[in-house]
Amino acid sequence: MQVMIDGNAVEVEPGTTLLEAIQGSGGHVASLCYDERLDPFGACRVCMVGVEGAPGPLPSCTTLCREGMEISTTDETALRVARAVVELVLSELPEAPGEHTALAVVAKQLNVTKTRWTGAVHEKDEDLRHPYLAFRHELCISCGRCVRACDEVQGAFALTVTGRGFSSNVAAGVDSGFAESSCVSCGACADTCPTDAIVELRLLELAIERNGSGE
């Protein structure tokens, strides 16, 4: 089938998502909860695009292409929604995300340099009981990538999302911590985390050492 992406005709196979079509044609759409290794989730609402005839922007990671669909990656309403989402996420964090993280990269792509909102901020809450992984709850944005990586990639089912809204977070086991969960230390959660909320413990120690030395 054929779709139009930013005015260019693109041939796609049935079952292709808008995001896959855009990426396959050399285009780009920012996203936070998407990981090509995982099933699309559509939680973050950052990968929004405009579609001719649709009542509003659509999430490109979960919307399937249809014959003749006209897609815009520069739709102003879609970009405004994406920027607002990223601003809200940043407003809840106690510190700016590391420049290497997916969240920082997405913020830069969308030209989000500061947030307009002030309010509740997550308090520091570290779980360092795991021998290899550190879990910094205050940096968690509840995108679900770690939970899905644990389930879909490793099949360990060690993580789950608890709470709702601002209070939502990821918990290991029955909220008993990584060390007591069914975690097999594969590192899939840390690899996919867009904020370094879950990070390999040695990497965290190295970062602390560098900051302490003024590097």
From TrEMBL:
Annotated source species: freshwater metagenome
Protein name: Unannotated protein
4Fe-4S ferredoxin-type domain mapped to chain residues: 131-162, 174-203
GO molecular function, one term: metal ion binding
Residue stretches making up the 2Fe-2S ferredoxin-type domain: 1-77
Lineage: unclassified sequences, metagenomes, ecological metagenomes
Pfam family name, one: Fer2_4
InterPro entries assigned to the protein according to its UniProt record, in alphabetical order: 2Fe-2S_ferredoxin-like_sf (IPR036010), 2Fe-2S_ferredoxin-type (IPR001041), 4Fe4S_Fe-S-bd (IPR017896), 4Fe4S_Fe_S_CS (IPR017900), PSI_iron-sulfur_center (IPR050157)
Keyword Ligase: no
